[in-house]
Amino acid sequence: MNSIERDVVIVGAGASGLTAATELTKAGLSVAVLEARDRVGGRLWTDDIDGATLEIGGQWVSPDQDALIGTLEELGLETYSRYREGINIYLGENGARRTFEGEIFPVAPATEQEIVGLIERLDALVAEIDPDRPWEHPQAKELDEISFRRWLETQTDDEEARLNIGMFIAGAMLTKPAHAFSALQALLMAASAGSFSNLVDADFILDKRVKGGLQQVPLLLAERLGDDVHLNSPVRTLRWDAEGTGSGVTAITDDLQVHARFAILAVPPVLISRISYEPPLPRRQQQLHQHLSMGFVIKVHAVYETPFWRDHGYSGTAFSPYELVHEAYDNSYHGDPRGTLVGFVSDESADDVFRLSPEERKARILESLSHYYGVQALSPVVYYESDWGSEEWTRGAYAASFDMGGLARYGADLRTPVGPIHFSCSDMAGKGYQHVDGAIRVGRETAAAIVAALQPAGR
Which amino acids does the record list as binding FAD (predicted)? Predict the structure, then answer.
């Protein structure tokens, strides 16, 4: 087995790990990045599927994501706006199909009033939340002990209003049923984007895409790091100095040992326990990791010979809390004359369709798309399902969130270093939580903490 020495070993070559590695090398430190997969990028993955370029993982850039936008500029990457011209589609209960413009769905006036009122109340609460420290809110414990669904029930009796508001957090973001996470977790999700209003504004949260794909960010960062990035290198064991003797860490893969002063675990929290630790991590860390779990969502890509919906004056944006595909968008690739729709099937609905055969699942999903766009949606020339739940080195999407009561109980310790071991990923971000922007922010902060720890006293 080969053995090398570095100042810092980083486990995971996603956006956060590679950002941390880049910042550390800028500070003159040596690094080794160990990646279990045969590619860099983590939950960013741009690939060619049957001749169509698809964003299998994350893809959108919002105007408030200044860390990501700055990185794109530094790497010389260009963006383009998501297609959004025309009218949007909403399917009500019993399949009633209505079109609309703007952010508020075409529902009954009383329901619209309830939706607007809920958004205003949520925005007011979110304004009180520090996304980096939501557990410090005076009502944090109380808000963390009530499910988001139950909280909505305390606010309105209008079921359609509750379903629509819940859809933006449960289905579109945390990808868990609204009864499975707390009101505090929901508020953190909204606070990480600046407001709840931002989450319900598709033109804001899904603003732009990157020409050539968002995976170019980690690809270009890894290219700069060169041979310091090691693929196909899952870390099996991490030996670390629990006594503070200064012996640092040793990361052990099947073929390589890296001795370093510090380690950064830049992987989803659910994978941290996949590594064996000598000695074991402290009880607190063992506990909190057991109270985090990934969501579950299928990202569906359907490519057609032409973007036929545009001919009918539709933007491609569609929503319904009653449909299998609860949201869908025009996701046509820059420069491709064909049209692509992207749709999402989340949490319990995703559970249900994965009990079917692949052929039955495809038929059910395309049928749901046809309810929005008509029979032409039944016949794509390329069809692909992004299923991150089956990815060995991710285990779900889009990010990990705490179970009921976990955020107030354990949140403050989520990123607390353990001796020479630091933690860095989008799942641990405040601003930019579960987005690439958050991954970059946390990567920079983690690198800065290590650089500061290495500074001589008094400097």
Answer: 16, 35-36, 235
